Amino acid sequence: MESLLIPILILALVGAGVLLGARALGRRRARPRPEAASQPGRDPLELARASAAKLSQEQHRRLYALIAQGQAMAAIKLYLEATGEGLRASRDAVGALAAHPQPFRPDAPQEGPSEDEDDAPQRFAYRYRAIASKGDVTREVSSNMLNDEIYGRIRTLAKSGETEAAAEALTRHSDISIKQAREFIALLED
Q: What pTM value is reported for the model?
């Protein structure tokens, strides 16, 4: 019996040491690092705002078109080339922009006559998804220039037989080609 007592005590001490070590390591990982907390841009929403401000209107439009098409690598490459930031910073910026869509905000307000809503699409702070399907065919348009009202007008045009006008309105309020718009409108016709 005495021959088993010593190995059992050693095993108990090793187990207690491992438990205490794991606990200390868990506490150390749970504590926020002061250098990470002080770095600007760690908040994804703030990072998205700052990243969107670095893009021109055309770059902003192209970046969100790539994000909407699911081409993350191309979007990262576009952001990297547009801003000159590093690969990791570009990846983080595109991820933040995808998670928190930002409207384009020009530096200076543009002067000029106000135009009709259909002539100059307004950009919204959110991405609107329009989905049309017929049978096994489904098409989706995602844009921050669409909303329920505009999409309703496009559907009305399509259902009343004015397919070309509906396709033109859809291309004006999204980043798709006229061919893609015609395919989408064809699914709306009944």
A: 0.40
